[in-house]
Amino acid sequence: MNKKFFFLIFMFFFNFLSFSQDKKYAKKIIKKLSSKEFLGRGYSHNADKIASNFIKKELEKISLQKFDTSFFQNFDISINNFPGKMTVEIDDKKLIPAVNYLIDGISKSCKGEFEIVLLNKLILQNQKLFDEFKKKNFSEKVILIDTVGVSNKETLQILETLIYFNTFKTPAYIEVYDKDLIFSPSMKEGNSTIIKVKRENISLHSKKILIDVENQFLQEYETRNIAAFVQGKTDKFLVFSAHYDHIGEMGENVYFPGANDNASGVAMILDIAKYFANLKEKPNYSIVFLFFSAEEIGLIGSKYFCENPLFEMRNIECLINLDMVGSGEKGITIVNGKVFDEEFNKFTEINGNKNYLKKIKARDKAANSDHYFFYKNNVKSFFIYTLGNYKEYHNIYDMSEELPLNEYENLFKLLIDYSNWELKK
Ligand SMILES: [Zn+2]
Fold first, then answer.
1. How far does residue 256's CA lie from ligand 1's centre (Å)?
2. Which of 4, 98, 226, 303 gets the highest tally of CB atoms within 10 A of its CB?
3. Where does the pLDDT of residue 15 fall: very low under 50, low under 70, confident under 90, or very high at 90 and above?
4. Predicted confidence (pLDDT) at residue 19 exceeds the cutoff of 70
5. How far is the CA of 280 from the centre of ligand 1 (A)?
6. What residues does CATH 3.50.30.30 cover in the chain?
7. In sequence order, what DSSP letters do the residues of 199-219 get, joined into one string?
8. Fold that domain 86-213 belongs to in CATH
9. What is the pLDDT, as a whole number, of residue 173?
10. What would the CATH number be for the domain defined by 21-81+219-423?
11. What's the rounded Cα separation, in Å, for the pair 27 and 259?
């Protein structure tokens, strides 16, 4: 092989490598963001700052531009954290946090040993018994709640409200669950500790419980969104977004890795950022990359951004939000796919021609991720998530080692092809 030919081949592959997706890079980002060092990307131990600093460094490596003097957009939240003690022992058997039980995000500190009182369908379905039960003094007792067999929805709703406001004035509740437990952080601090236990981990005849749970309620805690862009030829914008926050810690030794939710989305838009930053020619529109905080507590970061945009919202041609894109063997779902027909059809047309993904499903509008407030502000926006066998969600098993990323390349290519269609408009 002569040298010139070798050089041409080399250049061909070099181009190919630098201008296509980089799954290895994405894997590295997901592994890092889901590691112990990032503590579940919540707000205790300033984990959100650790994560946002890491993302900022990646943006600097890619040489993206800032809208202001900083990549960060600060805003305040209130947040209930669990960085401290997390001990639960029932009848002298220690339960393993996040394996045998989860606590409710509104839980308040609780310490002591208490007698357990059962509240089940026999009481809940008998008005007289339930009224008598409510009159009891629970200040030194913990209520074990089993709602199995209670079919009246109103009764269940009333019970939920009574627990929420702690009308029983008990230090803690134990709720028996038959479905998978998920942890959800809260912006509020309640009046008791709520322990959720899977049925196989508790006996309904349990007598006593030892609890040592600590919460840390922060008001006016400053967190931040991250915004960066690649300069385009016109004043229009194509936006990619992904939330980088997750659900944090549950006690001193437990953090939720959040590999799929949403280290996967962050990794993919960083990879897309690399792609656009490396183009030889400026794209037609500026390409914006937004990494939101406080999604898990109620889309707070993206809501704040929409109320305080860093550029003209009406110049956004299209926004694509990625949240949980770590699988894909069953295809993807596009939220707002049923709202924007022409664009959805373009996605399916490209996919049909290129044979990227098995299926693209359309969903109606939904307030289930960071695209939502953009949509409410008349921005053409989509939220994409992958469909597959990977089911770990808001638990300690959503780990990078388990995340398949089996359709990573295909989704990446679909997004780039779709972007190129938008950019030519
Ligand atoms: Zn998410």
1. 12
2. 226
3. very low
4. no
5. 33
6. 86-213
7. GGG--TT--EEEEEE--EEEE
8. Glucose Oxidase; domain 1 (3.50.30)
9. 98
10. 3.40.630.10
11. 10
